[in-house]
Design a protein that fits this description.
The complex is a heteropentamer of chains A (400), B (504), C (179), D (184) and E (384).
Chain A (H helix, E strand, L loop, with lengths): L16 E5 L11 E7 L2 E8 L7 H6 L6 H6 L6 H16 L5 H29 L3 H22 L8 E2 L2 E2 L7 H23 L3 H7 L7 H6 L4 H6 L6 H4 L12 E3 L5 H25 L17 H6 L1 H13 L6 E9 L2 E9 L5 E7 L1 H7 L1 H5 L4 H11 L3 H5 L1
Antiparallel strand pairs in A: 1-2, 2-3, 4-5, 7-8, 8-9
Chain C lengths: L4 E3 L7 H4 L2 H20 L25 E2 L14 H5 L5 E7 L7 E9 L8 H5 L5 E2 L16 E2 L1 H7 L19
Antiparallel strand pairs in C: 2-5, 3-4, 4-6
Chain E lengths: L1 H38 L24 H13 L10 H17 L10 E2 L2 E5 L2 E5 L3 E2 L10 H22 L3 H32 L4 H7 L3 E2 L3 E2 L2 H4 L1 H14 L11 H4 L9 H26 L8 E2 L2 E2 L9 E2 L2 H29 L5 H29 L1
Antiparallel strand pairs in E: 1-4, 2-3, 5-6, 7-8, 8-9
Helix pairs in contact in E: 1-10, 1-11, 2-10, 3-4, 3-10, 4-5, 5-8, 5-12, 8-10, 8-12, 10-11
Classes of the chains: A alpha+beta (400), B alpha/beta (504), C alpha+beta (179), D alpha/beta (184), E mainly alpha (384).
């Protein structure tokens, strides 16, 4: 063995090996690098390194109009793009002091939950995949594809939806949407059931998940965990419940909460939340009110195309919004919504022009990655895999 | 000195001041179309109606003079309702033209509609069609449908140029702007009407469809077309100047500029060269090139009398000061010449016969006597021999193409011919060394106009290729010669210029 | 609203679980059910055999751009630059020019979309005030073997396009101008 | 609810509170940096406040304004369900704030990102490295005077990175020494 | 003498090239790809196509052309050897991995010895009268057949361990270490679990074992290994899967943890050979389990002269000898493939163990269980 490349000497406690896990590694989705110091297979030190997917999101947003930010937000947590869209729209609406229409609220709730389902399915499936249970992964992905078909149906794209608009939505639901959902619903239930039966009680799976990557509630709070990861540690914090927005105060759903904060709890939180999302969508579809999807504020919402084509008033309105951008009053706002991974915050500073002066995203998994070393140190290399997965770090979101 | 209260704030103004001016003093903008501070106020657009307490109806702010104790509201409910009504009326016959209208983006109608009305029209009848793309003058195109008949253009021709080409013809909703029979809008200041037109009715042929205004960035600059040095807004997009618009400067040009100057921006874009060439090599870096130039000058072992330096009346004062320093202490030139554009036609308003923007700066840097040694003299001296090395600043030449070729032919015979230039041409291909320099839109510079008004402007965009600011050229050449150089920043040069002035 | 919390059950490690076999059997029952089902009926197979079978894109699907034309076959676009302004990726290049027909006045002499740079967000369609550009061609952006071929110019975009039926310009058309 | 918090902080740290506002329901305290640490300790541990979560750390660059920078903290209380924003203005010439890593560990990565993006230093931070960008990056990109199109110089291959084995050994030695001490 | 050598060569060719290798490599395709696609609601490989019968167009042939295309591709891929690797060992290692996997096949009986004379069935055994028995259906009829298997499988650990070591890469090294630890550990329970079977059948000769499994308990229940040693069957299956590093015991390659384990740094044909050896070993596991626990080439109630229901001297349904041989070889192949199918089903169903859990399973569960199994079997055998 050549000296300096790596050393494996017997006997001494001190002899450890450094292993670069990533950035190019099958399990480090979204290119993350973990500099591991290993004692045998035990991780004694973990130094996560992120930023390989940094795209200058916040810098770009500062030179985009308020509307042009939407395509960028699609690419934050790219597994649940709708939630980012809505989170951002919600923040700007808060700054503009606009209350969106009831129908828009319900549609946002529905599509947000569809996105959340796809996020949870991905997390569960990818976790299974990385534990080598390939079939479970593909079942989950099949379910996710059905959900993305719905994305495509109403927004025109599966992933880069750009569906929300400030003051409402790009378009109403299609007429067939409810029919489509009725067809998809039983299949998603079937897939969730299949995943549950394949894994939840399987001892191989339990051994891998239980007791690994655990974090206490105090630590989780201290590190700024939110979402399923915080709830798995036993803290029932869900923005949808604690600070309801959209139509969440009008639907009935439960918040699954774990007790130990280990991988198994995180997996279960996601699985059970998926069922809750199904419930929410069904309720919203049943109570979906009629009416417009966009608010009646001409300075914010683009006029109808017919008006643009045929009247100078509509044309002027259209032009002003396109070339100047929406004029958002100067001020600052912090708005928070529950994204797939936890509290997705937008801190926006406007100087009263068509571009944001500062647009900060609080990516939920950023703070969770900040605590991951605490969760994997002392465990084995193999434990990093389910831990990293149940945290559900999304590269686009953490690196922006 | 009457004192009035506008929107709750008191203001004291000279007698005879219109409410709109008084409001402007308080920073309150009263929307208007027909009113222009340099023109008379006909109060025909009715957009500036404001509520004056104790008056029976709303009053035009552009026309009504402030009287003592007047209480004015410019944003009251009544006023806003009136503005909405005015806008609705104006828009009744306005075509759906924003996509093809050059004014879109800086159009008052758009601004006010979004600010005050933003309501759909109640109009159900068709719009009145009028003339489109009407060539009202050689530089200006008229669109009758977009015109709101504010008559600013008519008043401009009456009151500013005194040429009176324009008038309103027809009545009611068929009214249009026209020239008097047999005439054209062809005075040397005709393009100003497009600036003052609040909508897209009058547009310039030059800028027509060239670039959308919202895409451009505007930088405050000056026009270098003549010694007047009118203040302009230099609008540029993607590193290219798209147009000049006059910028209000009461000391120089007020609100106006001449057509010739307005079109002089074209020189900034034509034939630009950003390549640095020494001999046959054009892949050199500035430090390397500077060392080679210094080496070549040292090797040639020239007497001061064999070295000539040609200053330019086009260049900024910074460039001239730095050039002077370089010529005296590093180049050690013994002969000084100057070049610049030949005189043209002038008039009593803005246009100067002297077409060089900085003759004053030239005199300031090189002294009065240099004016006697112009381009003709340079050509003559070159022909008579004696000059072996020539350094020439970027400049226009006062004579025609043939004479330029002649000069180039003479320059080819020299041992060393260094040309600092921003354009590619026969002279630059004749040069042994061609140094790329920035235009005035690309560097910080101070220009002194015919009346001695100095204006400092900043770079609007980056120069092409490896071109750099004039003063920086001399700094780098000095560094190449390992010489001491006191003027290593714009600030240092400014310190020298303004301390000189203080000493005088 | 009170937070309704469900506590997640921790599975008890009974012999049933601990002995591996029953749960493995259960897992096998799921996978082998799918296996035999698909072996004999292909009922659950969701794969679409792409080049031979094509999925129908929904009506709102954003695909390749297309330029619409007027009744007389001329390009509908008037080069107002709204789309290139709204484009977050800066992928639309337009050069405007003057049209001989004064009723059209302005048209795009050059209209190029860099389809590789395009992020398919649909902002251009939303921004178009003339119904000139659409993304409903139902064709997705195909791979390009050379960079140059990704630039779709006006003829290429018009080829995908169709006549626009949108009524435009208010009642302007009915009224004759008096030139 | 959180209005009371603002009032209490104002009362207790009169000198350090520069301003407060509550636009759009976001309670905001603008603080002098000297009291930041103390105020945060107070906010975290005071009953009825219990800001046990640091939601986010970020900064804003108000170019051409004095003071130019502002570090912004968003706090949340899981027990009281209220939020608070702290803003700490900083001069361009001296962009330093005390770290909050010892109050909330979440501040660790948040502050690293602010350092990375704005070049604001956090005094006492245990590991103030760049986080999203690489160590050799020149400048701080979210500053308003960093042009969006600017490109970075090409960097050389790194010969050797931080030696984690060495770090671990030191750690291990210290730990061994500690246990030796406690044994004797 | 010469004919013997020729016969052995013929048998080697037949077993290795007609059975082990084709099934082994086809499994890469059918098991790994086609079977998984069926489980996962996909179509699986069907893009590479061949035109075999003119006029029928190009057919996907359940993906077999993919296998050919892959082989072709592998040959032309670059053989990358990491900087600082031990080139000699790096080059030798694939052969070292393949060698034991193939050599083990020597003792697998595909059928009973060929009888040149007449067959009389007595007490569930074929007895060859008036003729010789010829060993046509296994390469070598070793009396210590099972020991030979254990011995050779002990050698196979070197392939993985050295592959990991010779690559000069950390992931490979971890993979190599994991595989050596795992393979050595599982050999213990593997050997102990079949010890019960050895006690019952009283032989180490695999063919003899199979012959004995033709016995019918109570006249109807075949005395297959799985019937008399059910626990040992599960342990042996698990241990053999661990031995061949198949999922869920694929720690040494665990792609989500250590990229690809010991063969991370192998490419082109070298990679293909390592893969192939793994699959050949997998097929061997099928064959061995079929031999020991599923009655090998035995078809229930079928003996040399036809079907017997009960301990009768004459067949209830007489069959010609060639048909019997064909049925039995078919049965053996079917059983082997069934075990293979089962292994792949498990692979696509179960998550992977963790490294220490595998060791626990081996030492703390399989070992005591197989010991207990052995003791109980010993008692029972002694009593009977």
């Amino acid at each position: 063995m050549k000296d300096g490349l790596f050393q494996v000497e017997a006997g001494s406690q001190e002899d450890v090996m450094v292993l670069n896990m990533g950035p190019s590694h099958p399990a480090m989705h979204g290119t993350v690098r973990m500099v591991l110091t290993l004692d045998g297979e035990t991780v004694v030190k973990c130094d996560p390194e992120i930023g390989y997917l940094h795209r200058g999101f916040e810098k770009q947003c500062e030179s985009a109009t308020w509307t042009q930010v939407f395509p960028y937000t699609d690419r934050l947590n790219y597994v649940s793009p709708m939630l980012n869209n809505f989170g951002y729209a919600h923040a700007v609406e808060k700054l503009l002091e606009i209350e969106i229409t009831d129908r828009a609220k319900y549609i946002r709730t529905i599509m947000g939950e569809v996105s959340r389902l796809s996020d949870h399915l991905t997390s569960i499936g990818a976790g299974a995949l990385e534990l080598a249970a390939m079939s479970a992964f593909l079942y989950a992905i099949e379910g996710r594809d059905l959900l993305w078909d719905l994305h495509e149906e109403i927004s025109g794209a599966r992933l880069t939806v750009s569906y929300a608009r400030i003051g409402g939505l790009k378009a109403d639901l299609t007429e067939e949407f409810e029919e489509r959902w009725n067809a998809v619903e039983p299949r998603i239930y079937e897939i969730l059931g299949r995943l549950d039966r394949l894994m939840t009680k399987n001892r191989v799976f339990l051994d891998r998940m239980q007791g690994t990557g655990a974090i206490s509630a105090e630590d989780a709070i201290d590190f700024g965990f939110t979402g399923p990861c915080l709830r798995s540690a036993g803290v029932a914090y869900d923005v949808r419940k604690d600070h309801p927005y959209f139509a969440y105060d009008r639907v009935d759903f439960d918040v699954p909460v774990g007790s130990t904060g280990d991988n198994y709890d995180r997996y279960m939180v996601r699985l059970l939340e998926a069922y809750q999302s199904m419930r929410i969508i069904r309720q919203c579809l049943n109570d979906l009110p009629d009416g417009p999807v966009n608010v009646d504020v001409p300075s914010v919402v683009l006029p109808e195309k017919d008006t643009v084509y045929n009247t100078i008033e509509g044309m002027i309105n259209h032009f002003k919004i396109i070339f100047e951008g929406i004029q958002v009053p100067a001020g600052e706002v912090y708005s928070y919504t529950e994204a797939g991974n936890g509290e997705l915050g937008f801190y926006i500073v406007s100087n009263g022009t068509g571009n944001p002066w500062k647009l900060r995203v609080r990516p939920p998994c950023f703070y969770m990655m900040g605590g991951i070393d605490r969760m994997v140190e002392g465990g084995m290399i193999a434990d990093i895999i389910p831990t990293f997965d149940t945290i559900n770090m999304i590269g686009g979101e953490i690196d922006r | 000195m009457p004192t009035a209260t506008i929107n709750g704030k008191e203001v004291t103004v000279p007698r005879g001041t219109a409410i709109i001016r008084a409001a402007a003093m308080l920073g309150i903008n009263v929307p208007h179309f027909c009113y222009h501070p340099a023109l008379s106020a006909p109060a025909n657009c009715r957009m500036c109606l404001v509520e004056v307490e104790k008056a029976r109806k709303l009053e035009p702010a552009c026309y009504l003079k402030v009287t003592d104790g007047m209480v004015v509201h410019t944003e009251s409910e009544k006023v806003v309702a009136a503005r909405q009504a005015v806008l609705e009326f104006i828009l009744i016959n306005h075509p759906v033209d924003c996509p093809i209208c050059d004014q879109a983006g800086e159009c008052k109608l758009q601004d006010y509609y979004m600010a005050y009305d933003a309501k759909p029209s109640r109009l159900t009848t068709g719009k009145v069609g009028k003339v489109k793309v009407y060539p009202i003058g050689p530089e200006v195109v008229y669109d009758g449908e977009r015109c709101i008949l504010c008559t600013r253009c008519v008043r401009f021709c009456d009151q500013i140029t005194g040429t009176s080409e324009l008038t309103v013809v027809d009545r009611g909703d068929r009214s249009e702007i026209r020239t008097f029979p047999g005439r054209e809008l062809d005075n040397p200041y005709s393009m100003n009407v497009t600036d003052i037109c609040p909508v897209g009715a009058l547009t310039t042929r030059d800028f027509r469809f060239k670039c959308r205004v919202w895409l451009m960035t505007s930088t405050d600059s000056i026009c270098t077309g003549c010694a007047r040095g009118c203040s302009v807004h230099l609008d540029h997009y993607l590193g290219e100047t798209q147009r000049y618009r006059p910028r209000f400067n009461p000391e120089v040009n007020e609100y106006w500029m001449c057509d010739e100057g307005r079109l002089s921006y074209k020189r900034l874009n034509a034939n630009r060269s950003g390549a640095l060439r020494v001999g046959e090599r054009d892949d050199l870096s500035w430090p390397r090139a500077a060392r080679m130039i210094a080496g070549a000058l040292a090797d040639a072992q020239l007497q001061p009398d064999q070295i000539a330096f040609v200053a330019s009346a086009d260049a900024s004062t910074e460039a001239l000061v730095a050039g002077h320093e370089y010529a005296l202490n590093i180049l050690r030139a013994g002969r000084f010449y100057w070049t610049g554009r030949a005189d043209g036609e002038g008039d009593a308003f803005l246009r100067c016969a002297d077409r060089n923007p900085n003759r004053a700066g030239l005199v300031h840097s090189f002294g009065e006597q240099i004016l006697e040694r112009g381009a003709d003299r340079l050509l003559k001296d070159l022909k008579s021999g004696g000059i072996r090395a020539l350094f020439m600043m970027s400049s226009a030449l006062p004579f025609g193409r043939e004479a330029v070729e002649e000069l180039a032919a003479e320059a080819r015979k020299l041992d060393i011919f260094i040309l600092a230039t921003s354009h590619a041409g026969s002279l630059s291909s004749a040069a042994t060394v061609s140094l790329p320099v920035a235009k005035h839109s690309e560097q910080t510079g101070t220009w002194v106009n015919i009346d001695g008004v100095a204006q400092t402007v900043d770079a609007a965009y980056a120069p092409p290729g490896v071109a750099i600011a004039d003063w920086d050229v001399y700094r780098r050449l000095a560094a190449g010669a390992d010489a001491e150089w006191p003027l290593d920043s714009v600030d240092a040069i400014h310190a020298r210029i303004f301390s000189d002035e203080a000493a005088e | 609203m009170a937070v309704t919390v469900t506590k997640i059950p921790r599975p008890d490690r009974s012999l049933w679980v601990q002995s591996y076999v029953p749960e493995v059997m259960r897992g096998l029952s799921i996978t082998s059910k799918q296996f035999f089902k698909n072996l004999f009926t292909k009922k659950d197979v969701v794969t679409i055999q792409y080049p031979e079978v094509k999925r129908d894109y929904p009506e709102r699907y954003r695909g390749l751009h297309r330029l619409m034309y007027r009744d007389d076959g001329q390009v509908r676009c008037v080069a107002c630059m709204c789309c290139s302004t709204a484009c977050p990726a800066n992928c639309i290049h337009i050069e405007a020019a003057e049209h001989d027909d004064t009723s059209i006045e302005k048209y795009p002499a050059v209209f190029v979309i860099d389809e590789l740079r395009c992020i398919v967000c649909g902002m251009c369609v939303e921004a178009c005030p003339c119904d000139a550009i659409r993304m409903d061609s139902g064709i997705h952006t195909h791979p390009f073997y050379e960079r140059d071929t990704a630039f779709f110019d006006k003829p290429a975009l018009l080829e995908l396009g169709g006549p626009s039926v949108a009524h435009q310009g208010g009642d302007m058309k009915g009224v004759q101008g008096h030139h | 609810m959180s209005k009371k918090v603002v009032t209490a902080v104002k009362k207790k740290f009169k000198a350090a509170v520069l301003d407060t506002h509550s636009r759009l329901g976001d309670e905001t305290i603008i603080l002098d940096r000297s009291a930041l640490h103390e105020v945060c300790e107070f906010l975290k541990h005071q009953p009825k406040m219990e800001f046990n979560m640091l939601m986010d750390v970020t900064a804003v660059d108000y170019l051409n304004r004095e003071p130019r920078f502002e570090v912004v903290y968003h706090l949340y209380s899981l027990t009281q369900k209220h939020r608070l924003r702290l803003r700490v203005p900083l001069e361009e010439s001296d962009p330093v704030v005390p770290t909050l890593t010892d109050v909330w560990r979440a501040a660790n990565w948040g502050e690293r990102e602010v350092w990375d993006m704005y070049g604001i230093r956090f005094e006492g931070h245990p590991d103030l490295r760049r986080i999203l960008l690489y160590a050799e990056f020149e400048g701080h990109p979210l500053r308003k005077d960093y042009p969006i199109q600017r490109s970075q110089p090409r960097m050389d291959l790194r010969r050797k990175e931080r030696d984690s084995v060495e770090e671990y050994r030191t750690m291990h030695r210290d730990r061994a020494a500690d246990s030796d001490r406690s044994a004797t | 003498m010469l004919t013997d050598i020729l016969l052995i060569l013929l048998k080697i060719v037949a077993v290795v090239l007609l059975f082990a290798m084709p099934i082994g490599s086809l499994m890469t395709l059918l098991g790994d790809r086609k079977q998984s696609s069926m489980i996962q609601n996909r179509v699986g490989p069907n893009r590479a196509r061949l035109s075999i019968i003119p006029g029928l167009g190009r057919l996907p042939l359940v993906g077999i052309p993919h296998f050919l295309a892959d082989g072709l591709k592998m040959i032309f891929k670059e053989d990358a050897i990491p900087d600082g690797a031990d080139r000699t060992w790096h080059n030798i290692v694939p052969a070292m991995a393949l060698f034991p996997a193939i050599v083990m096949w020597a003792v697998i009986p595909f059928h009973d010895h060929y009888c040149t004379g007449e067959i009389v069935v007595q007490n569930y055994r074929d007895i060859c009268v008036e003729g010789q028995t010829r060993n046509f259906f296994s390469i070598a009829n070793l009396d210590a057949g099972l020991l030979y298997v254990f011995a050779i499988s002990g050698v196979s650990v070197y392939g993985a361990a050295i592959a990991g070591w010779a690559s000069n890469a950390k992931y490979s090294l971890i993979g190599g270490l994991r595989s050596s630890a795992q393979m050595i550990s599982y050999e213990v329970s593997m050997a102990l679990s079949v010890a019960g079977a050895i006690l019952i059948y009283g032989t180490l000769n695999l063919n003899e074992m199979v012959v004995q499994q033709g016995h019918l308990i109570g006249g109807w229940l075949p005395m297959w290994g799985i019937v008399v040693q059910p626990l040992a069957f599960f342990i042996f299956l698990g241990a053999m899967m661990a031995e061949t590093k198949r999922a869920p015991f694929d720690m040494p390659e665990g792609e989500s943890e250590i990229v690809a384990g010991y063969f991370t740094e192998f490419s082109s044909m070298k990679f293909a050979v390592i893969q192939l050896s793994e699959y050949v070993a997998t097929v061997f596991v099928g064959a061995l389990i079929a031999t020991i626990f599923l009655g090998g080439w035995q078809v229930p109630y079928l003996y040399g002269d036809g079907f017997h229901f009960g301990n009768t001297p004459t067949a209830a349904l007489e069959l010609p000898y060639w048909a019997v041989i064909a049925l039995r070889i078919g049965a053996f192949s079917f059983k082997t493939i069934f075990i293979l199918w089962l292994q792949f089903m498990l692979r696509w169903t179960l998550p992977r163990f963790r490294y220490d859990q595998v060791m626990n399973l081996g030492w703390k569960i399989f070992l005591p269980l197989s010991l207990a199994n052995l003791v109980i079997t010993a008692f029972v055998v002694a009593i009977l």
